Amino acid sequence: MRRTIDWADGAIVIVDQVALPGEYRTLTLRTVTELVDAIQRLAVRGAPALGAAGALGVALAARQGGDVRAEADRIAHARPTAVNLAWGVSRALDRLPDGADAVLAEAQAMLDEDEQRNRAASANAAEVVLGACPRRPLRLLSHCNAGHLATVAWGTALGVVWHLHARGLVESVLVDETRPLLQGSRLTAWELEQAGVPYRVQPDGAAAAAMARGLVDCVLAGADRIAANGDVANKIGTYGLAISAAHHGVPFVVVAPTSTVDKSIAAGTDIDIEERAPSELTEFGGARVAPKGAAVFNPAFDVTPAALITAVVTEDGVFRS
């Protein structure tokens, strides 16, 4: 499994997630401006991957000289909700007094740690799912993309599927298309196809109906920020999924590395939710699909209260509300 983000020949190399599933290609980012642009247009996305991007961005700035702290601040604020981005920037920046090589070494260590932590977190979560779901093989529901594309490698919520699939315990995965940018149908479905895991893509609005028909044994979700009280910010639509899961008695499991936990945020109401460009809703494939001048509400994330979550699982263990 090739890394989603890496360092090579003095530059940051990422899988261009905007091009998938039509084309698998990589981008070589040689300046902080190129990195910030890639982050903002979602060529690189997913909380753990953003943490790596933040650290590697500081390494890039440190090697090129100039005002490294100003560049680091620009990277940290490229997207506001995912705490991992600022966390990765901060961790790498702490090594700046030791020189550019030390900053790069720290960033590269974070790449290795990310895969290890996500493998451990998803292995822990797989046992939670098996304990909560007596039926075998399992029918799982996934929202957005929390696979290896959202991390350095392996994945968080979708990492659970890799563990269970290897044991022959997955019947199929229902993949929410995840509007408006279709990270589910474009990215998660692509990952499942590559791994040979049976799946079906569904419109986001079909999730509750699927649960009502008994087609879902467990919902798996990642996280972009977890508040101290266990509230979880994740891709828009996650909150509605959690409400439906609670109503139908379906376990709802969140999987994330501990770097996603932000203890400085007391509750989800304090999380800064990013709002995206209106064009993501008013246009599709370059063609207008809403009346000219239509007002738009386009939050990239929502907050799921801890009371609706069966378990939050990290590499350190299982946390229940």
From TrEMBL:
One Pfam family here: IF-2B
Binding residues for substrate: R45, G46, A47, R79, Q183, N234, K235
Coiled-coil portions: none
Annotated GO MF terms: S-methyl-5-thioribose-1-phosphate isomerase activity
Protein keywords: Amino-acid biosynthesis, Isomerase, Methionine biosynthesis
Site (Transition state stabilizer): C144
Segments passing through the bilayer: none
Isomerase as UniProt keyword: yes
EC number(s) on file: 5.3.1.23
Reactions it catalyzes: 5-(methylsulfanyl)-alpha-D-ribose 1-phosphate = 5-(methylsulfanyl)-D-ribulose 1-phosphate
InterPro entries: IF-2B-related, IF-M1Pi, IF_2B-like_C, Initiation_fac_2B_a/b/d, M1Pi_N, NagB/RpiA_transferase-like
UniProt pathway annotation: Amino-acid biosynthesis; L-methionine biosynthesis via salvage pathway; L-methionine from S-methyl-5-thio-alpha-D-ribose 1-phosphate: step 1/6
GO biological process: L-methionine salvage from methylthioadenosine
Positions of the catalytic residues: D224 (proton donor)
Family classification: Belongs to the EIF-2B alpha/beta/delta subunits family. MtnA subfamily.
Chain's role: Catalyzes the interconversion of methylthioribose-1-phosphate (MTR-1-P) into methylthioribulose-1-phosphate (MTRu-1-P).
Protein name: Methylthioribose-1-phosphate isomerase
Organism of this sequence: Amycolatopsis rubida
